Amino acid sequence: MAQEQNAGQTRTVPVERRSTYGHARVQAEHPQTQLAGRPRKTLVQTVRAKQAFLESYAQWSNISAACRASGVARQNVYDWQEHDENFARAFKVAESAATERLEREAWRRAIEGSPYERTSYWHGEPVGTDRKVEYSDQLLMLLLRARKPETYRETTNVNVTQVVKTVAGIDPASVL
């Protein structure tokens, strides 16, 4: 908002601002924001925010979760990717680390298994505890398909043979 003075009267008029993508937006009519605008972060704060986001993203493999954990607005991440080459490269490195973490966990669940305990009850009283390790055959197949797709991918062969019958007065070769 900006203030105009006409013949001793002061009135507030909307100030048009441009967003990152060029869309016009009107600043809110709040007395503290009418001149100062939205508070900006210092360069050091921005660098720390970027680093915090990248560390969270490498850990969680999810942009929304990393934004919540690091206190960064989701839109900032997309703006940084678009306008900051160093951040875009660091984002790809963090994405690769996140993918490797997911692969490591899938490997652990498929090969080493997930141990768990289950208590058995009889007439409401505990009678024993079973300790088991559960393995994931589906994860194992996915890992095999990723490593050796030519051997483990699902293939579908559809063989079509043409059968052409002679219909009265029509040559089968002319139809094909």
Detailed description of the structure:
With 176 residues, the protein is an alpha+beta fold. The chain has a domain at 113-152. It is 49% helix and 20% strand. The chain is built from eight helices and six strands; from the N terminus they run ββββαααααββααα. The strands form three sheets. The protein has a two-stranded antiparallel sheet with strand order 1-2. A hairpin with a 5-residue loop joins strand 3 (16-18) and strand 4 (24-26). Helix 5 (85-112) packs across helix 6 (137-147). The longest helix is centred in the middle third of the chain and has 28 residues, at 85-112. The radius of gyration is 32 Å and the shape is flat. The termini are far apart.
Sequence-ordered SSE layout with sheet pairings:
Layout: E1 2-6, E2 9-13, E3 16-18, E4 24-26, H1 33-36, H2 43-60, H3 63-70, H4 74-83, H5 85-112, E5 114-122, E6 125-134, H6 137-147, H7 149-152, H8 172-175
Antiparallel strand pairs: 1-2, 3-4, 5-6
State the main characteristics.
single chain; 176 residues; two-stranded antiparallel sheet; 8 helices
Please sum up the structure shown.
It is built from 8 helices and 6 strands.
Chain-averaged pLDDT: 78
Tell me the overall shape: flat
Number of helices: 8
β-strand number: 6
Distance between the termini: 75 Å
Order of helices and strands: EEEEHHHHHEEHHH
Helical residue percent? 40-55%
- What is the makeup of the main sheet? 2 strands, antiparallel
Structural class: alpha+beta
Report strand order across the widest sheet. Answer: 1-2
Low-confidence stretches: 13-37
Q: C-alpha Rg, in Å?
A: 32 Å
Question: Into which percentage range does the β-strand content fall?
Answer: 15-25%
